[in-house]
UniProtKB/TrEMBL annotation:
SUPFAM superfamilies: Winged helix' DNA-binding domain
Designated name of the protein: Sugar-specific transcriptional regulator TrmB
TM region(s), chain numbering: none
InterPro entries attached to this UniProt entry: Tscrpt_reg_TrmB_N, WH-like_DNA-bd_sf, WH_DNA-bd_sf
UniProt domain Transcription regulator TrmB N-terminal: residue ranges: 20-71
Source organism (scientific name): Methanoculleus bourgensis
Length: 375
């Protein structure tokens, strides 16, 4: 995100918050809260007045400063985060919303519209979509037509451009809210009658999956808890957007499993140049925090899982796999393994990326080798 856009977002958020709490704000209120010269804040107030985001409610009178108010007490954005990863000719779009209802609305209409999207699914307030690069036009309108659709996804100079067509509420989101979401670098819009068209620009980030296993013992630790802590730790690094955490069950018939033999993986969107640093930090964290000396970590880039890698994940759920087999599979598919025996299950976790929760958690469910997200 540009510095100007980020600064605008910071000032507007604070001005709206103070307006909600006190009914107005002054230049001094904002200057003290942001440790910024009053002249700079005044320039921003004037600019936001011109944009219609701020109104003057009381002129300056003697020693009494001018009072201002944010022009709307509505949420500044229902969109918390919007970011994207790229893997070959496909893009994954992640849209985290404040509301499960709003996320469900977008899931329904995006799926109905089709367009550039090949799959749409939602996990709580996180909408996750797989798209082809290119343009596939969509027609939006009143029911039964979709209210919003993604008509194109392009990759240019390290950025993803989503071309969106919408009407009604989604149009308000595009014009007034999306630019304030974390991860958005820019939004351009124009109207064609009742239809609003625009582009949402985000960085083309790298998708990174990190699997971990055998971090606990029979009396100490839990792999899922360490995975969650790892996700929080890495999310604080510059250039990292956390996506989520999954638990998968492996072969429950192995000797001496802990709690049924589960593993975990976490998903991250990472600036491409930061991937080695994130990987190093992940391995160091697990090595320091694991209760078991057999801890294992697997790291792989890319959200598309080849058939033979998926088959490895199925074999670990159904049989006993050696470390040599894990090493050979990792080398073939560009994954990197660290640690001891746990690397076998950690790679299995990475091989199971993207499967539905009910398949991940039930080792009796078959892992379909050619499975891809459904639309």
């Amino acid at each position: 995100m540009s510095r100007v856009l980020e600064r605008r977002k910071q000032y507007l958020r604070l001005m709206r918050q103070v307006t909600l709490e006190a009914g107005y704000f002054t230049v001094t209120d904002i200057a003290e809260a942001t440790d910024t010269p009053r002249s700079t804040v005044q320039d921003w107030v004037n600019r936001l007045i011109e944009e219609g985001c701020v109104v003057l409610t009381e002129e300056q009178r003697g020693r009494h400063p001018a009072r201002y108010a944010a022009s709307s007490a509505m949420p500044e954005s229902a969109c918390r985060r919007v970011f994207t990863t790229i893997d070959g000719d496909q893009v994954e779009i992640y849209h985290e919303c404040m509301s499960g209802g709003c996320a469900a609305f977008c899931e329904f209409h995006h799926a109905r519209a089709g367009g550039a999207l090949r799959s749409v699914h939602r996990d709580g307030t996180l909408l996750r979509e797989r798209a082809f690069l290119g343009r596939r036009d969509v027609a939006v309108g009143l029911d039964p037509a979709p209210a919003v659709g993604i008509a194109g996804v392009l990759h240019e100079d390290g950025y993803i451009h989503q071309h969106i067509r919408c009407i009604g509420g989604p149009a308000y989101s595009l014009t007034d809210m999306l630019s304030l979401a974390e991860g958005v670098c820019g939004v351009t819009v124009h109207r064609e009658g009742a239809v609003v068209e625009g582009e949402v620009i985000t960085q083309a980030l790298a998708y990174v999956a990190i699997g971990i296993d055998d971090t606990d013992t029979g009396t100490e630790g839990a792999t899922f808890a360490l995975a969650l802590a790892l996700l929080q730790h890495l999310a604080n690094l510059e250039g990292v957007m956390p996506i989520g955490h999954r638990v998968a069950m492996l072969n429950p018939r192995l000797e001496n499993p802990t709690a049924g033999n589960s593993c975990s993986y976490i998903e991250l969107a990472v600036e491409p140049g930061q991937v080695p640093r994130v990987e190093e930090a992940a391995v160091r964290f697990v090595a320091d925090e694991a209760a078991s000396p057999e801890w294992g970590v697997a790291v792989r880039q890319g959200f598309r899982v080849p058939r033979d890698l998926r088959a490895y994940g199925r074999s670990v759920r159904e049989s006993v796999v050696t470390r040599d087999a894990a090493d050979a599979t990792a080398e073939r598919f560009g994954a990197r393994l660290y640690g001891g025996r746990g690397a076998i299950g950690a790679l299995a976790a990475v091989a199971l990326v993207g499967l539905p929760h009910d398949v991940l958690l039930d080792p009796k469910r078959d892992v379909c080798i050619g499975w891809e997200p459904a639309g």
